[in-house]
Amino acid sequence: MEVEKIAKNLHPLERKVVPYLDKITDFNALVEETGMKDVEVMRALQWLSNKNIIRINVDVKEYIELGKNGRKYKKEGLPERRFLDAIKDKEQAVSILMSNLDFDRNELNICIGMLKSKAAIDIIRGKELIVKITEQGKKLLSKETLEEEFLKKGFPIDLNQLHPEEKFAFDNLSRRKDIVLVNKLKIKHIELTDLGKKLVNVKLTQYSVVDKLSSSMLKDGTWKDKDFRGYDVSINVPKVYGGKRHFVNQAVDYIKRIWLDMGFKEMTGNLVQTGFWDLDSLFVPQDHPARQMQDTFYIKDPAHGKIPNLWKKIKEVHETGADTGSRGWGGKWSEDVAKENLLRTHTTVLSAQTIAKLKESDLPAKFFSVGKVFRNESLDYKHLFEFYQVEGIVIDPNANFKHLKGYLREFFTKMGFLDVRIRPAHFPYTEPSAEVEVLHPTHKEWIELGGSGIFRPEVTKPLIGSEVPVLAWGLGMGRIISEYWKINDIRELYKNDLKQIREMKYWIR
Amino acid sequence: MPSVQLNRKVFEKYVGKKLPDDNLKERISYLGTDLESLDNDTINVEIFPNRPDMLSEQGFARAFSSFIGMKTGLRNHEIKKSSHKVIVEESVKKVRPYTACAIVKGLKFDDEKIKETIQIQEKLHITYGRNRKKVAIGIYPFEKIKTPIRFVALKPAEIKFRPLEFLREINGLQILSQHPAGREYGHLLEGMDMFPIFIDANDKILSMPPIINSHDVGKITEETRDVFIECSGFDYGVLAKCLNMIVTALADMGGEIHSMEIDFYGKKVISPNLKPTEMKIDIIYINKRLGLELKEKDVKELLERMGYGYSKGKALIPAYRSDILHHIDLVEDIAIAYGYENIPEEIPEVATVGEESKFSVFKRKVSEILVGLGLIECKTYHITNKAFQNTMMNCNIDVIELANALNLEYSVLNAWLVPLLFEILRGNKHHEYPQNIFAIGSVFKKNEKEETGIQEQERLACLLCSDQVDYTRMRQVIDYLLRMLDVEYKIDAVDHSSFIDGRVGRVIVKGKKVAYIGEISPKVLENWELDMPVAAFELNLSELFSVMD
Lengths: 509, 549
Description:
The complex is a heterodimer. Chain A is an alpha+beta fold. In chain A, 37% of the residues lie in helices and 20% in strands. In chain A, helix 13 (215-220) links the parallel strand 7 and strand 8 (227-228). In chain B, 30% of the residues lie in helices and 28% in strands. Chain B is elongated. The two termini of chain B are 51 Å apart. At the A-B interface, helix 14, strand 9, strand 10, strand 12 and helix 19 of A face helix 2, helix 8, helix 10, helix 11 and strand 21 of B.
């Protein structure tokens, strides 16, 4: 039977409350009678209400209560009465009255103003201000005012049940400072449902139920003759949070996994580099706009680093093309410019360093890196001065442009972007060069993700020694990582808001 | 990247065809230019820096028209011979030694054309001219000039003329200090005791390159029909290319190019020279790089679609193209003409073995171990500020400063990581405690042995923050971590002003000091406005990894 099942599964707090419910309907009374804490009663009632045993009806009532002055005047009488009382026998100086009655300036002014308007006092102006009671004043003194009657009542008083005279007195008093105030009270009435009415008739003590299985019960076997209280398993519980990898790192790990699975080796290297490795070795001309101060972070001290002997070859390639079959950029190449220390502007610097170390026998080879790069920009919702770049190179005598497209397609498919395209672009170190774009699956617009291409002979010849094709790409990841978690402001990636990190769902791919 | 604004009607006239919006957008994209905006009147495109010849309406339209197959192949821009001369005198040799000049006649300037001409000049100045450093361009109403024109250098005080849009005549030095262009480009003449000028046969000064033209004889108006053009700089090859880009654009605008004879210190050169350069085509090389099987006739057709000519195994490169350094540049243009979108995708079967860096693996394991203890990984920047690294931490550590940071809040490289985690705690005071967090990142210090003079090491910083935190709890974390990494360690007492005296230790592994660990000084907590105790350690992962077996 349903009632019995409910009775058996009652929580200990509910079991305490239920027996009172046929007599008591008021929440406060229930707290008093049961001797339980407010919150305990509240929780028990909430659960009972969830089980449709009771209904909790909340009445909002407006109650009049006494304020600070109200409580004082209830005890001592209203100031105007005390004032009149003090002068009923003989006239008095105001200053003396004030100290005798312990009035403040405000109270005094009110009294004088009010009594004057009722013609209850006369004021005599001499050296001092003297007040004198009138006949009218004496009459007043002899009977109680409506306000005084009102103050004598027991508070709180229901605002909605005032008689007309009481309403009049209340309105007058509420114009004065801190005498009466109105509080909204929520009054909870408990009403048993039909099911509840049945339940209160069940003898709860007949069920010996256990709330928690304990180790002692297991040791002495007493659990055997006990019933376990059933839970409301559908109920919400407080949240817990676990230790967690940062969500960006979860994505980075996945991205690394993709390249590892495709047979790529990881490249790592320094964040501070010389211009030589970051730019010159990649055939970026020394007067290229990208080398201007505003784009790149330079180091103040040490401002310059050392450059390897390779610089002689690089210089020649820049100036004349050397043996690469190129014209070169022309002009003069400066060692000093190449020595400038900077924060790497792209992870392609790692590719340059990697291929410079390769031997013919290492080919074919494939490398990747996922690393931070820097750009001297102000932070805003679309820009960071430090962000991840995903770099890849394939060094293979048979590599061609079709393969470049193939690798990129594979990668982005695994990242969840099925539409990938490349468009012509320009980078000083690749030819052909291509911009990589993916189609946003819902917005249906193309997102630019970075550059790709085949390294120029002016890059590969001096670094590797031969003009072996090197497919290369450097892709920004911030946008697609943000996209996954529906982050609109890219700064949130590194905001380290612990609530956000705790709540953030896992990278599941 | 510079962008060019095109009048759509003029553009369509040059191209010879009207394309619907969608098609136009798509084609512009696949030509290798970025479409910024497009409406019925105006097209805005961004041009990559390798194609300054497309920075004019005419140049862009010419390339586009070939690309969509309207007018393909090498364009013939005829040059009429003239006897007009420019004499380059010895005095400019040390200042601005070269100039390339031409005359273009029969231009019917109107408001639109003047705008176009100014745009060409401005865009080329900024990009190919590297803000006038490499190339400065002057365009003058030829009717007001009498040849021969001389290119000479004079003492700045002796140079007197009325610069563009100025009310009176001033001298060379005053131009630098008073004229807006002088203030902007004056640095290009810094330290020179002679300034270069162009001056005509009537001794009228045309301009003072690379700063400003004369108002009287250096301003194009609607009355102008013929123009004199000069590019000045340091490398004749560069100047000649730039001149070619301008004269071909003006010729497309309806002008007639006339040559000039330039006398360089006795050596005579006819300018401009629009003869295409030749480059031998290697079809095998092209097919190998692109993975295609193009025949000679395909290559010819594709080259012509990019504005080249083709003759007997050679590409004829238009004289306005400045970006063809190597055969590979032709390969790219062939790929563009073929259409990047038409090149198939393929993953080759090349057997290579993937391999993660061992140190990366190690770092990931460290993170996993700490996550297992319920800690939250955070992600920090590598750039911070001096106050966070030092004063806020009640210590004094050398930091490496950036030379040109935009924002003082981010102006030094991390010397240690604990301060970054404090920044995180400070930002999370309104969130639930305990806040037990860690981060891995690089720190930087000077070291002359390194190539850059800066040593980079990766470290792990770990903070526990709650009312229950003390040294023991922190010690338990590092102890668990090091045991799980199978590392034996000991801890020596040490002094460190960021920590509470007597509650800070140095972790030592195989004789190497790898970490500080302790309870953070209340002074530091106060600096960060925290009212919860914090214990911390900072472990040098690079060092630890290097001593592990």
